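Request: Show me your protein:
***
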Amino acid sequence: MVFSDWLKPGALPYRIAKRLLQVAFTLFGLLILTFIIGRVMPIDPVLAIVGQDADQSTYQQVYQQLGLDKPLYVQFGIYFNSLLHGDLGNAMLTGRPVVDDIIRVFPATVELATMAIIVGAGLGVPLGVMAAARRGKLADYIVRFISLAGYSTPIFWVGMMGLLVFYAWLNWVGGAGRVDMAWDGMVENRTGLLLVDSLLAREWAVFFSALNHLVLPATILGFHSLAYISRMTRSFMLAQLSQEYIITARVKGLSEFRVVWAHAFRNILVQLLTVVALAYGSLLEGAVLIETVFSWPGFGSYLTGSLLLGDMNAVMGCVLLVGLIFVTLNLLSDMLYQIFDPRTRV
């Protein structure tokens, strides 16, 4: 293939370049929007640093050090230039670089969200398929009730009730935090994923303690995503089960299991990939309430604390990361679309 062929609209390099350009514009637009919102918020970052009792000269000095005396476009230019060099600034909350803080807290959220999506997709998909296959029957009504409960019940309330019942009363699971205090700091932080690090260190007591603390918040968070995934799976399956090829398969005498799973379910895999990917992205950035209830030292707690303090360096770093996660998941979904559905390979 010559270079001119790469520029043809149907060529793979052209599609990749077009997609990457869309990603760049999306992230740049998100950066501008977040920066402007951060500057018009009714929170004074200077007061968050110097305190309410600081004199005017100290206030002005910090005000100038933060560059807030410059025009808005100059402030954005300075921030964008620093961003291109991998510098997101320092966080007011910790005094450390925002990049270091995110690297420190994000693995805890990844561990929680990954376990939650395993619960949500592992149960939500078969429940949605079962509900569609038994439309109008008791199983369908039960799944729809579970889905409605997952949508309508406040997740923070479920978290508190879960702690009260399964931790305080029954003592089946661990309480707040990622591990019992007796085992805190017992393993070397290699990946930031406590389950993985404890396995690598062969510290089985730490592993089971971490797993015991992870089960409840991950299950509650997974229940919330289960409601969405099961509902979408049911909708996709109902559309497929009404198609003519399904009627033909049944006329041929194929078993109901094969009709549902080998034919109908296979044709919704492409749609489910996007649903699960977006649900996972939502868990990564939307676990704020669960992390607060369970004192989980993750990304959501860090973002909430930074937002309340008016620490826009940390907030913008977190928002950019969330945007990057969603864009990346969409890209992966598009790639998987082309793997599972040849019709998309145009």
